[in-house]
Amino acid sequence: MQFTIKEKHVDVKKEVDVLVVGGGPAGIGAAVAAARSGQKVMLLEKRGFLGGNITGCYVETCNHFLHGTSFEAHGIYAEIEEKYKEQYGRSHDIRINSPHRFSSEYLKVFLDEFLLKEGVELSFHSFVNDVIVEENKIQCVIIQSKKGPVAIKAAVVIDASGDGDVAFSAGVPFEQGRDTDGLCQPGTVNFRLAGADVNKLTGEVDQLKVIGKRFNQDYRAGKTGLSCKRQDLPFGRLTPGGQITYVNYPCAYKIDPTDVEGLTRGELECRQYIMEFYEYAKKNFEGFENIELASIAPEIGFRDSRRIKGLYRLTKEDIEAQRVFDDAIALYPRIYDMLAPDAYMDGDGKMEGEGYKGHIYEPITDTRTYTIPYRSLLPVDITNLIVAGRCISADHVAESSIRGISCCMLTGQAAGAAAGLANKSKVAPKDIDVKELQAVLRTQRVVLP
Ligand SMILES: Cc1cc2nc3c(=O)[nH]c(=O)nc-3n(C[C@H](O)[C@H](O)[C@H](O)COP(=O)(O)OP(=O)(O)OC[C@H]3O[C@@H](n4cnc5c(N)ncnc54)[C@H](O)[C@@H]3O)c2cc1C
């Protein structure tokens, strides 16, 4: 059975120079860079706060991939980290050598103030699921509000929704998941625990790391009896009050992150895994005897979903060859982290061999880097749209590298600066002078070859 949706007339509520959809790492970079180029910028976010996966899924390990290497984050991400640290220090973190940069709750407040100070107009609870396209140009973006559809008009639109929702609505072709079966990495619902015994967990050795390692061995030996297939057990900050702020454990597999039925299954499954884990941890981990489940992340988080078709598709071969593109807008170290999409966990973690089927994990071990070309941010067919973050044009393995939070903010920053240049020169984003874009980015602490 089918119904026809009635034609509706929508008033344009607002007109801006640059409209950013999504307030995660990419959207933050995009909105700030566009505002700094003198544009009138509005950011639409479906949730009631900024931060994307960092705050919506408690992913406080923002620079986990770079931690303990010779690489440092740059651009707006580095600035945020520094300013946040000035204001909130270590966010009560007492773990030794901790890679956790933020408390996601303080970060929410920090980002509100940071973006408002930059002159970005924020619109929360603004879910975008439609656009009006005429002559290959987005005329306006439609928000689904409680009062019905609302239209916002902009000269340039930046899709930083993580899932490429704007590009999808505009009919841009996309890929999703791995080539063989379209499966994405699992969805995860992170959670927090309270009441951990701080004395037992601190000292010369980071006991949370020890627990994580032992858990992995016990899981592989079939000793845990837990039904979730995830073997790794990264923990977040440990606070003096005994809070563990991020338990990255429950994983729901074979879920399409853009499908309501799949998302519902993921949330339900992960909550069951959390309860099983909670009982297990209380009984088996030293220092967890009196823990309490403090909170469950507001939403299931995804590491990948749609990857839009752009003017250039970044590949793992480009990364392996350390290609330096003429239109490079970001430089990032060689790293891959792709959790097994099908829960096949016996891989060796390497790009080649069994790891290709299982979890691909290649941390940074040397100084290899690669670049991301501006063309990977430009979708085919639509002339005033730029994409940023984990949905840019890349193959599935390459995406497991560019998904790094500071990298997503770099592609966002490039998109925002490019939108500013396009509007100032009154040309389409694809026709801007890329050398000028690179020069602007360099003045904003972005390191390029
Ligand atoms: C469990 C987990 C652990 C991870 N661990 C790490 C790690 O250790 N280190 C690391 O660097 N990366 C990690 N990642 C990956 C990282 O979180 C993402 O790749 C990164 O956040 C992507 O940034 P983004 O801005 O592209 O998208 P997102 O962070 O997904 O942000 C997208 C934003 O857009 C909003 N939005 C979506 N659709 C719409 C719409 N239609 N209308 C309006 N708003 C919309 C969302 O609410 C969200 O705020 C992890 C991810 C997960 C899920």
Automatic annotation (TrEMBL):
Gene3D superfamilies: FAD/NAD(P)-binding domain. Keywords: 4Fe-4S, Iron, Iron-sulfur, Metal-binding, Oxidoreductase. It comes from the Bacteria. One of its GO terms (molecular function) is metal ion binding. It holds the Pfam family FAD_oxidored. This is FAD-dependent oxidoreductase. It comes from Mobilitalea sibirica.
